[in-house]
Amino acid sequence: MSKQSRTLQTYQALKFDVLSARYLPGRKLIIENICEEQCVSPGAVREALARLTSDGLVIAEPQKGFTVAPVSIADLQDLTEVRIDVEQKCIRRAIRDGDIEWEGQILSTLHQLNKTLETTVLEGGKLVFCPIWAEKHAQFHDALVSACSNLWWLNLRSRLFMQAERYRWMTLPYVEEKRFVVKEHEALVAATLDRDADLASALVEDHLQKTADLLLSSDAPFDDTDERYTKAVKLT
After folding, report:
1. Contact at 8 Å (CB) between 117 and 68?
2. What are the φ and ψ backbone dihedral angles of 66, each rounded to 5 degrees?
3. For residue 86, how far is the Cα from the chain centroid?
4. Per-residue pLDDT at 7
5. Residue 12 has pLDDT above 80, yes or no
6. pTM of the model
7. Which residues is 66 bridged to in the sheet?
8. Domains in the chain, ordered, with CATH?
9. E-assigned strands of the chain?
10. Per-residue confidence at 46, pLDDT binned at 50, 70, 90?
């Protein structure tokens, strides 16, 4: 395996560990331990951690090394506010510019998502999102806005989506309220294919805000007692 492939593999493995909360917020990431666990070189781990730092999932501090980025109520609220704004811009532009191939892609990814089991149980009884479902879910939301012609919006949207996924994965064991997310997705698709930009935009806001509200009302271990969120924003 080439050096580039090993680095990519290490990055993907560490990214999954952070998003799925296997590595909890605030955890110190010891390069030597990761090398042993992943059976890779220190160079591959450092490059992967540097990329995760760029993603905003890991914090690098001089003389202190790497830690998993913190989570907080304030961060989730700010993230949701910005995410709604960007998603609405993207869906409006996609509706304006999308063609029949784009419509077909939306229907295809929705069908695949609906046919995939949402959650699974890891060893130890921890409930997590099924990795395949998480992938199909991301592909569905990507398809909805894929006709957007503004690449800056799409790049920012991708980064925000990844940050939101970490909150969803982390809080899953604590959310008790049942949610009919399939119907939410189908309503969003219907409005999008009808080229009703106002309705689609409103449904996007409702969909994302509902996710945030469920997480914020859960018993998930958010930490708003320290200043790591502010520090993380400054460092990244």
Report:
1. no
2. -110, 140
3. 14
4. 86
5. yes
6. 0.83
7. 29, 60
8. 3-69 (1.10.10.10), 73-216 (1.20.120.530)
9. 28-29, 58-61, 65-68, 119-121, 127-129
10. very high
